[in-house]
Write a structure and sequence with these properties.
By secondary structure, the protein is α/β, with parallel strands linked by helices. It folds into 2 domains: 3-115 and 136-205, 3-Layer(aba) Sandwich (Rossmann fold); 219-271, 2-Layer Sandwich (Gyrase A, domain 2), CATH 3.30.1360. Helix content is 30%, strand content 24%. The chain contains 6 helices and 12 strands. The strands form 2 sheets. A 7-stranded mixed beta sheet has the order 3-2-1-4-7-8-9, sandwiched between helices. It has a 5-stranded antiparallel beta sheet with strand order 6-5-10-12-11. Helix 5 (228-234) packs across helix 6. The chain starts with a strand and ends in a 7-residue tail after the last helix. The structure holds zinc ion. The site of zinc ion (ZN) has 4 residues, from loops. InterPro entries: DppA_N, Peptidase_M55, Peptidase_M55_sf.
Length: 278
């Protein structure tokens, strides 16, 4: 049995280059849903080519209702909708996942990359775990490692692939587009990117297999915002302290708790953002 979990974000999908391409409810998002579904289907096909026996796709973008179930490869199952304990990597805590794919991912807040951000589209300028700058890729890889699951595929822009070499050097990485600015990229067509993703997923399947779970250890998480009041707002989350005008920090006993606290902070902070002044 080889069980694969695909964490499907959207900013790093084929053809997606600006907020209107991935903002639920907009015409641009409707247009890009099949492009994302195509990327996912290519990964599903590749994983089965490489010997996977089951693939669960976990929606990981905004409302977490972006993929088109009716166009999904019949061999996969889809976890759709939000409010999930582990959010983008829901399912990994079952402890029986042999490999996780970060599909249509992007670089972190404050980095170069198409639609670069960390959880919140704006407001947050950096996240650091034990002093190391972390985007969603590293954060989620640290959580998966605690459950013994290796990262076996990453797709996104070329900057996302470079970032992945830092946290998952073995994993095949597919650049579906090349960064030009935060809202511009040189894109390849879905037919081309699907072929690349399928081939990479087949190679990734060979890396799948349960690892020794990373022993839990305390993690110091620091979050920097673009405005002082957001740091203040975050301190209502127990354990979160303001360490500088635009910075908060907390220590979690492990990354499982670390990511859950991070989610609480981003939820509180997003409610404290004012429309024009941030
Ligand atoms: Zn997203």
């Amino acid at each position: 049995m080889t069980r694969i979990l695909i964490s499907a974000d959207m900013e790093g999908a084929t053809g997606v280059t600006w907020p209107g391409d991935c903002l639920p409810g907009t015409p641009g998002w409707e247009r890009c849903r099949p492009l994302l579904t195509s990327d996912v289907n290519a990964a599903v096909a590749g994983f089965f080519d490489g010997g996977a026996t089951s693939v669960l796709v976990n929606e990981a973008h905004m409302t977490m209702r972006n993929l088109l179930l009716e166009q999904l490869d019949d061999r996969a199952e889809l976890l759709t909708g939000r409010h999930k304990e582990l959010s983008m990597v829901e399912g990994v805590q079952r402890g029986d996942v042999d490999g996780i794919a970060f599909l249509a991912y992007h670089t972190g807040a404050g980095e170069e990359g198409v639609l670069a951000h960390t959880y919140l589209g704006n407001s947050l300028t950096g996240v650091f775990v034990d002093g190391v700058r972390a985007g969603e890729g590293l954060l989620n890889a640290l959580v998966a490692a605690e459950f013994g699951t290796p990262v076996v595929l990453v797709t996104g822009d070329d900057r996302t692939c470079a970032d992945a070499r830092g946290y998952a050097p073995e994993a095949p990485a597919v650049a579906v587009k090349d960064y030009v600015s935060r809202y511009a990229a040189v894109c390849r067509t879905p037919a081309r990117t699907a072929a690349d993703i399928r081939a990479a997923a087949a190679r990734g399947a060979a890396l799948a297999g349960r690892r020794e779970p990373e022993p839990p250890r305390p993690r110091r998480v620091e979050i920097e915002f673009d405005a002082e009041h957001l740091a203040g707002a975050a301190t209502v989350v127990p354990g979160v302290e303001q360490t500088a005008p635009r910075r908060v920090a907390y220590t979690a006993p492990d990354m499982y708790e670390g990511i859950r606290c991070f989610k609480a902070v981003t939820t509180v902070v997003s409610a404290a953002v004012e429309e024009w002044y941030g």
